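Subject: Protein record for review, amino acid sequence with backbone structure tokens
How to read it: Take the token row as a discrete description of the fold.
Enclosed: The protein record, placed directly beneath this head.
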Amino acid sequence: MLAFKVVLLDEADYVSPNGQAALRGVMETYHASARFILTCNYPNRIIPALHSRCQGFHIERVDITEFTARVATVLVTENVEFELETLDTYVRATYPDLRKCLNVCQMNSTSGYLVAPHGDEGGVKEWKAEVVQLFKAGKIREARTLVCQSARPEEMEDVMRWAYDNLDLWSNTDEGQDAAILIIRQALVNIPLCADQEINLSAMMCELAALQKQ
């Protein structure tokens, strides 16, 4: 029996359309001796020709409550003391990336206590965590400025997904959160249309910040 070679292409959604088209030919050429596994965060970026040649499996993200519980369990196991409010800040900044959350918590708990991001106790700077803190404190302008200064052009979609995952930062009402979704959706639509992504992001943050004043 012929043993198949297995080719794993991680984050295949970052391969260019031309590269994916070339991959289609490779998959057809070696279909008798190889199997290809493609992983991605954005399935819509995979061209239809590859979709039709693959069996799709969608892995649901872990619930944020379970995510928080897992991080808390690790901290307790490692004898790290923490305040729930500080842990919530890191969770909001990194969810659903558990590995990143644990890494950030580790960097900010060298003294055996989980300190606030970039706090007076010597915490390591993590800009999303700082933004969450600023919004919680009602420092809207400072938070908006920090987002626009820190986010790189290639991070825009991830930042907007982060904004969507934290709807309660923008409004405590169902109507306000619905409005926030529409604002974030429009900013995503504008990504390929706007020449300056910082302006697009800044406009989104201005609109989201305005919801807090309503």
User: Anything to note?
Assistant: The first helix runs from residue 17 to 29.
